[in-house]
Amino acid sequence: MARIPAVEHSFAACPLPVHPGPSATGAGAVDADVAGAVLRTARAVLAERVTEASEIDASFAGDLAGRVADFTLDGGKRMRPRLLWWGMRACGAADTGSTAAALRLGVALELIQTCALIHDDVMDRSRLRRGKPAVHIGLAGQAGLSPDSERGSAFGTSAAVLAGDLALVWADDTVAETALPAPVRHRIRSIWRSMRTEMVAGQYLDLHGQATGGSSAARAIRTACLKSALYSVERPLTIGAALADADERTTAALRSAGRCAGIAFQLRDDLLGVFGDPARTGKPSGDDIREGKPTYLLAVARERAEATGDEGALAVLGHAVGNADVTEGDLADVRGVFEETGARAHVERKAERLRDHAVRRLGEGVDVDAHAGRQLLGLLHTVSGGRSGSSPDDTREHDDRAASARVLTPAEGGRVR
């Protein structure tokens, strides 16, 4: 492959602090544009980080620190900071101190996401992220190396690991330097410690499932909970509740709502990865099959085929899953197995039950008729693929009996501690 030219990093080239003015940090002003307020705060925080890096070494600042800053600022829907913000607001906080802290902690969550995405692209050997070369690809090109050469691949991969590590360090520093009352600081640091470890555990379970060729349905849900639901939805909501000094009952309701919505998101994402239109999803259909991802959808199909002795279905899955050279015909056969075993319908129903449970639990914790509660409800619908979100089946009727059923077993992560 031809050498990829170095990309000039706007942030590294011109790390100008953009500090939010007093009028931009009041709770009412932030309500009007949460993502914009987080972005302004991120620019200020990251300008300081890049400046500190430049005092250590210019090439380190330009090649790595500036790239981490640019990646964090460029793209993404700021969903985690928005969940944190509206979780806090729905619990009643609106003072200046909580507002400033929420924005800084939102930046920390964005940096954690930067770490996760950079490392995930390395582990999955992904070449693109947000329509641009993935960080490990870009770093190889910036060094004047082909990412397909042994030397270029080794350098790009190693440097990207360091870039992800740097993002994690900056996230931790941002949390540590955020002004908080002592009791609130203790609660948030406890949540933060748990979240970091859970994220790594989920990624490991995902890798382990790929290496060993699969996992049970319960294990797949557990992986989705740790890798995606907790750090993407539940923990941001819990941090917001902690900033508002919410009581245990409210916090438990938000945690349960966030966990269910987060797992529903992952289940629907798994469905879109197989049945979705690439023009709408932005990613090739069938990549999870090629990579051998141990999804809940795949686990359910296997378990049902094994239970009925469907050797044909098992043969199709055995040939295609984890096979980088699968054809479109092979992928069509896999989709057929998911349909015929009832796995697709089962996963859709489970995602719906999780979504409905999330909505009900949210209503038990906060006033969903108030402005902040409505905003939070809308975010959970979007995350979980409700009628305002992107779902493979938005028209299915609600099933009140299913919504009231227990949706997660302890083995799947159903206990909220």
Description:
By secondary structure, this protein is mostly helical. The chain has two domains: 13-179, Farnesyl Diphosphate Synthase (Orthogonal Bundle), CATH 1.10.600.10; 185-417, Orthogonal Bundle (Farnesyl Diphosphate Synthase). It has helices at 10-13, 27-32, 34-56, 58-73, 79-90, 96-124, 135-142, 150-176, 182-212, 217-243, 248-275, 278-281, 287-291, 296-308, 311-320, 328-340, 343-365, 371-384, 400-403, and strands at 128-129, 132-133. Strands 1-2 form a two-stranded antiparallel sheet. Strand 1 and strand 2 form a beta hairpin. It is globular. It starts with 9 loop residues before the first helix and ends in a 14-residue tail after the last helix. Residues 1-9, 12-24 and 387-413 have low confidence and may be disordered. GO terms for molecular function: metal ion binding; prenyltransferase activity. Residues 382-417 are annotated as: Disordered. This is Polyprenyl synthetase family protein. Its cofactor is Mg(2+). Pfam families: polyprenyl_synt.
